[in-house]
């Protein structure tokens, strides 16, 4: 039986690791938050005391961490490269990083792992917390065709659609293009809904109209930002859980940096970044990103 080590059991990682257990894999887990580790152990995972302990004998190592610096630190340690999990992994282990990070960091980690006899794919995801829990995520993968094929069954246990975007780093580039569009759609949908509300139209009625009209998009279908329109989404739970504004701001920063490399014009993404940065600065960083809806609400 394949042994998978899983790092990062937050909003996304907890559901993903649970689905690997459901699929029958042997899973060892590690997170800085003990309660998250305990949750997965109750489902059948084993817990490593240290990251090194967790990767011992693992065939596949998955990370689902906030940002690139967390992944680099986990892989290579801080000052001493022997402290990271790369130095402790068994020969020929395959590393799958599902976090959303800089494409350049993914490329350089891929080269460093290759030099040490391991393989790597960047495999960021789309589909949100609900998709992670239901095992219906979309994986956007960068790496060699051979490694992508080797990890396919593992990704299938956590997702529904697996796309091979290109060589190492390509998964990250494709992912941030998608998330830049998501930020634009969430801000635009919020603005349109509030315009309707200000003019006496019920938000649920307006959402139904747009879902059957040319304004239809993912935020209306599965993640309505207006409280009370949909059940089981962050907007109906005080914007708790889901995808944090801080993480959306990280992704928009990655999108702007990527745009700068080839002088791509991204005026809509840039405006969405300004909106989300202001929203984050107003104390909303830990809320779900659909809380941008609140920025359009009349105050007082
Ligand atoms: P989160 O903050 O909920 O979870 C991150 C987890 O990593 C936390 O439990 C934290 O304790 C843990 N962690 C941090 N450093 C660690 C380390 N060194 N070792 C082990 N664990 C460590 O974040 P999330 O929402 O699950 O997002 C994770 C990644 O997925 C991010 O890169 C995000 O951009 C991306 N993403 C999130 C969503 C979403 O809807 N939440 C959707 C797609 C992609």
Automatic annotation (TrEMBL):
Residues 4-166 form the 6-phosphogluconate dehydrogenase NADP-binding domain. This is 3-hydroxyisobutyrate dehydrogenase. The gene is mmsB. It catalyses: 3-hydroxy-2-methylpropanoate + NAD(+) = 2-methyl-3-oxopropanoate + NADH + H(+). InterPro entries: 3-OH-isobutyrate_DH-rel_CS (IPR002204), 6-PGluconate_DH-like_C_sf (IPR008927), 6PGD_dom2 (IPR013328), 6PGDH_NADP-bd (IPR006115), HIBADH (IPR011548), HIBADH-like_NADP-bd (IPR029154), HIBADH-related (IPR015815), NAD(P)-bd_dom_sf (IPR036291). Belongs to the HIBADH-related family. GO terms for molecular function: 3-hydroxyisobutyrate dehydrogenase activity. Residues 169-294 form the 3-hydroxyisobutyrate dehydrogenase-like NAD-binding domain. It is an enzyme of class 1 (oxidoreductase). Transmembrane segments: none annotated. It holds the Pfam family NAD_binding_11. Its EC number is 1.1.1.31. Keywords: Branched-chain amino acid catabolism, NAD, Oxidoreductase. It comes from Glaciecola siphonariae. Pathway: Amino-acid degradation; L-valine degradation.
